[in-house]
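Narrative summary of target 7.
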Amino acid sequence: MGTTPSSPSSPSPAPSPPSSPRRTELLDACYGYLLEHGLTGLSLRPLAAATGTSPRVLLYLFGSKDELLRQLLARARHEQVAMMAAVLAEPAGADIAARAGCDGFDALVERLWTFFSAPEQRPTVRLTYEAFLLSLSHDPGPWAGFAGEAAREWLDLLVRAQPPGTPPALAEARATRALALIRGLLLDLLACAEPQRAQSALTVETGPQAFPTPSPPPGTAPR
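Modeled conformation, tokenized:
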């Protein structure tokens, strides 16, 4: 059973039963399976076998494969937002604070990068990008809206993390830039596995002072 979503002409699946301890337990187990195996080629039979159940039970508890996928992606989004909120709530270390911007927002961005770029977060980050690409395809099916919803959740946290009194337009622009920077570098990290290069791109200073004009070689006539 592949990952092809139901076609628009397919009948709407029956609503899944209300939440129960068994449903929650299986959702947790299925999420762990996704972190290890990813979304591509996901099939109910091996998923059920790995989580100690059967495809029939999964379909009963979640209504359909598409609904199970939607629940798993919602779980992925909510877990990332919870982790992000916890990281933002931590006090900044002295080394990061010393490199912070004028109001500390740069320190928050660096702290988020440090957390999400850690090797133990790689399965979560990889799953997020896989879901992003699927949600942006021509026929997103159960993944529809994942990228936009995740982006809005991150932006909301980054806006609210800025000091009181920050003009709304400025707060949103800074949050947007920070989100693009972190996510772009995380994608680079997944592709190239060069953490030091990605880290240097996050903290590099830009502008004339950061890249002064080199002195001409001795004996070169000035222009």
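The first helix runs from residue 21 to 37.
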